[in-house]
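FW: tagging you since you asked about this chain on Friday. Here's the raw sequence from the shared folder, copied in full. Didn't touch anything.
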Amino acid sequence: MGTGLDAAAVFPYDIDINPSGGHTHEHIIRRARFSSPHSKAGRALHRRNSRQGPRHGAALRACGEAGRVLAFDVQEDAVRQTNELLAREGKHAEVHLDSHAHMENYAAPESVDCIVFNFGRLPGGDPHIFTHADSSIEAVNAGLRLLKPGGVMALAIYYGGENGYGERDALLAHLKTLDDRKYSVLVCDWANRRNDPPIPAFIFKD
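HL: got it, structure written out here
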């Protein structure tokens, strides 16, 4: 599910974190830095972007030459697939085989501009692999400590099926406890989608 964070309002980034790396290739690819234009892959991408116009230019500017894109996944196959896709696209991101709850080991407090979470299960993936409320809430709290003032966190909460509704309920309850003097929380609702549609939520750090 797209979170809408490809809009120009949220870049340029210094640091962008995707704690569900293997599940959201598109976000990582759009945010990752292009290889140097002097490399073979970089020259090819530079020629292609020159022809295709502003859509690729926006992705090129999203993180900047000095920026970082970090991604996390606990599945080795997901990390491998993400790295292979980055290599094919001629882009760079730091893809870590680690839990999203440990992201504070990789970035300094209040240094991150944008964090994008996918919670729950991966539609079309192994239904027995999904996130859990305790580590997910821990990851949200860690992410909030990493966000800069003015930064944004996006959550896509998948539920139902094998993973049930417990994590969804725990996350939504936790969002209501966040201090409104520090954070603005927006939770969205699909008006006409059936069969447990994912819930988009956004946290803006004031």
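FW: Helices lie at 25-31, 40-52, 54-63, 76-89, 133-146, 166-176.
HL: agreed, and The CA atoms of residues 146 and 187 lie 21 Å apart.
FW: great, closing this out.
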